[in-house]
Inverse folding.
């Protein structure tokens, strides 16, 4: 992630502190039909950690199948699976050795077909990870390229630098490029007598999209899964698809003195190259082709961390559309546990004010690569941030477990499996490890939180807080719980005003952020939250015009003294530390 560029900085300055609300246009005209990917919550499942059905300590497809009713009852509309393809598991499934098979650790293709059919029967759309920038070094394609077989010779990025007899292999590395997982992005092949590029682990060689064979093959992968009635894709690591020809060195970023760390360099030559935007448009054309054939919407969402001027072009243009949306990671990159109302307001407007006209926003609170919401943004603010992300205009993406308020789990060096952390070593692993947010889902208070059988060691340790009520079963039985708040928020997303209404945001005080959703003929919805550590009482009517004398509480943080069904005066709304409220001008017409 690079530091914010000038466009982002100007946007932040434009959204400076003000008590006056800032309006954003309606995301879609009121008479325009919305697709499933616009109205749904998209729920990410990290399959290794969701539910183990066979007692080997690793989650699998059968475990997901057995819990699909839970997702239906939760109210989400689409399930996105992190990779389940055949893999040596060096990067836990992101190193793919066969794009057309299911890895045995997760099950079989028959299991996938059953999962898809059951999901569809329950009204759930199915989205797959489309891993495009690299493969496993064990895939047949790489092995053929290694041997310089006809047709595969240039499927990967091969090169040598200047001849240097004193260098370990007789050649300098082609450039100073760095791997995301530390150290040089170039690895020597004795067999081929060249270096190959790997933006991630040495076992994940980068594909060469300048070779027509690669382009055609990856389109075949897309079509294979579309033929299997997959509804959409999350495209992994889009930024790294292309690199500058000639492999020019990159300049230091000034962010760190650690010359082995990926952020030591500015990644101008290796990320978000112009050709990448064009390839996304070609993939979108394939999705549109299938949508036209069966009449069912298809969706593509992209993993891109960067400034707005780099991210927004991934939407494409009306004439040449790109993705339905690139992921909005600004709640991740811009916010932390100390963030105040101005910070949240700026993060919202960083996306909304830069999004090209006619496109659809989205909000990502977390994923398998980022610390959990409670850990990153504050335990007291779990419900509040779910309120914000689920009721802002656009699509909400939820990482499994955020609906019950899961937190990061401490994982010792001995239990560490994340290759990024392993590469960093025992002294630095905790600064980069992604294991803490990937620990098993917490179902109940039985052994291993119900993730796997008693006596089985899970692939990662379970967070002991499952015994303190952070699990599905306990939260469903409790009078107040994170999951019950979450379900109310999902219900509210079904309201026309939530799907189509205009957005006004306001900074009520240093620590109180609020926004309204309004639509002619529909009840106004107000979301207000106290990000601070002290109780605050605020006057919403002084900021938002037209509020009635009474508002009904639709949803409230579990620590709030005011709960669902209560009425409050907008002139005097009391918020405890970390508390959020969803208030409705007319609860009868909203329901």
């Amino acid at each position: 992630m690079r530091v914010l560029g000038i466009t982002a900085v100007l946007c932040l300055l434009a959204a400076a502190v003000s008590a006056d609300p800032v309006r954003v246009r309606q995301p879609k005209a009121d008479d325009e039909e919305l697709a499933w990917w616009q109205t749904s919550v998209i729920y990410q499942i990290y399959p290794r950690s969701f539910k183990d059905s066979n007692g080997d300590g690793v989650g699998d497809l059968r475990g997901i199948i057995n819990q699909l009713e839970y997702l239906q009852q939760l109210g989400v509309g689409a399930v996105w699976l992190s990779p389940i393809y055949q893999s040596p598991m060096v990067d836990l499934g992101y190193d793919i050795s066969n794009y057309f098979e299911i890895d045995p650790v997760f099950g079989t293709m028959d299991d996938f077909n059953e999962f898809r059919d059951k999901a569809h029967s329950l009204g759930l759309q199915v989205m797959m990870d489309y891993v495009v920038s690299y493969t496993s070094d064990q895939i047949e394609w790489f092995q053929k390229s290694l041997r310089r077989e006809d047709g595969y010779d240039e499927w990967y990025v091969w090169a040598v630098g200047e001849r240097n007899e004193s260098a370990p292999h007789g050649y300098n590395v082609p450039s100073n490029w760095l791997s995301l997982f530390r150290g040089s992005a170039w690895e020597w092949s004795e067999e081929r007598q060249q270096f190959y590029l790997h933006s991630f682990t040495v076992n994940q060689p980068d594909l060469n999209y300048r070779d027509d064979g690669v382009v055609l093959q990856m389109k075949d992968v897309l079509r294979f899964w579309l033929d299997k009635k997959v509804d959409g894709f999350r495209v992994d690591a889009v930024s790294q698809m292309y690199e500058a020809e000639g492999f020019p060195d990159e300049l230091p970023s000034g962010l760190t003195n650690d010359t082995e760390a990926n952020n030591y360099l500015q990644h101008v030559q290796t990320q978000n190259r112009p050709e990448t935007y064009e390839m996304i448009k070609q993939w979108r054309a394939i999705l549109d082709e299938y949508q036209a054939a069966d009449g069912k919407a298809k969706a593509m969402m992209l993993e891109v961390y960067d400034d707005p001027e780099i991210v927004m072009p991934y939407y494409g243009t009306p004439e040449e559309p790109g993705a339905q949306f690139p992921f909005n990671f600004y709640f991740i990159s811009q916010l932390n546990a100390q963030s105040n109302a101005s910070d949240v307001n700026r993060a919202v407007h960083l996306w909304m004010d830069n999004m090209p006209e006619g496109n659809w926003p989205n909000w990502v609170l977390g994923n398998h690569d980022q610390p959990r919401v409670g850990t990153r943004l504050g335990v007291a603010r779990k419900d509040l941030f779910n309120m914000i992300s689920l009721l802002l205009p656009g699509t909400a993406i939820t990482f499994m477990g955020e609906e019950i308020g899961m937190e990061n789990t401490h994982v010792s060096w001995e239990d560490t499996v994340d290759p990024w952390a392993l590469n960093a070593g025992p002294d630095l692993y905790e600064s980069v490890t992604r294991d803490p947010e990937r620990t098993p889902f917490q179902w109940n208070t039985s052994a291993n939180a119900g993730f796997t059988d008693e006596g089985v060691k899970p692939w990662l340790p379970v967070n002991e807080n499952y015994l303190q009520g952070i699990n599905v079963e306990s939260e469903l039985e409790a009078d107040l719980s994170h999951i019950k708040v979450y379900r109310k928020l999902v219900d509210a997303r079904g309201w026309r005003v939530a799907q189509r209404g205009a957005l006004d945001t306001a900074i009520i005080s240093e620590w109180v952020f609020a926004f309204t959703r309004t639509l002619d003929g529909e009840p106004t919805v107000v979301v207000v939250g106290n990000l601070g550590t002290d109780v605050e009482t605020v006057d919403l009517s002084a900021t938002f015009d037209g509020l009635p004398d009474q508002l009904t509480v639709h949803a409230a943080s579990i620590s709030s003294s005011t709960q669902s069904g209560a009425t409050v005066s907008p002139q005097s709304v009391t918020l405890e530390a970390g508390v959020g409220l969803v208030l409705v001008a007319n609860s009868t017409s909203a329901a």
